[in-house]
Amino acid sequence: MRDDIKINDRAAKISAKLIEKLEAIYDPDIELDIYNLGLIYEITLDEEGTCHLIMTFTDVGCSCADTLPDEIIASLSEIDGIKKVRVEIVWSPAWKVTRISRYGRIALGISPK
User: Where does the MIP18 family-like domain lie (predicted)?
Assistant: First the structure.
């Protein structure tokens, strides 16, 4: 899991599955997955199986703001042990290009440093 994503112990145990699902969900405007784009700030999983994901978008006018949360809910709900998914959208802290992972920078043709 990325160092800049806050994650609790229960979610950390299934982090490989979470990453796999999040890397398959793309921001259609930038054509990079939401994990490597750095849109995810926090993931928690409670003892009842509720996964709470806190994320942002690249800007307030993002065209996928209405559809992306539903896609995340559907995808993460497929993971064993997750019974419910809540997606919370926040605007603070604001997303910055520096949140893009090294892989994401290379994929977008941006200097990986």
Answer: 19-89
- Name the CATH topology of 6-106: GMP Synthetase; Chain A, domain 3 (3.30.300)
Nearest to residue 91, comparing CAs of 60, 68, 53?
60
* Pairwise CA distance, residues 40 & 24, whole Å: 14
- Tokens 């930038």 found at: 30
pLDDT per residue over 23-69, tens digit each? 999 998 888 999 999 999 999 999 999 999 999 999 887 778 888 99
What's phi and psi for 80, nearest 5 deg? -60, 135
Is the CB of residue 34 less than 8 Å from the CB of residue 26?
yes
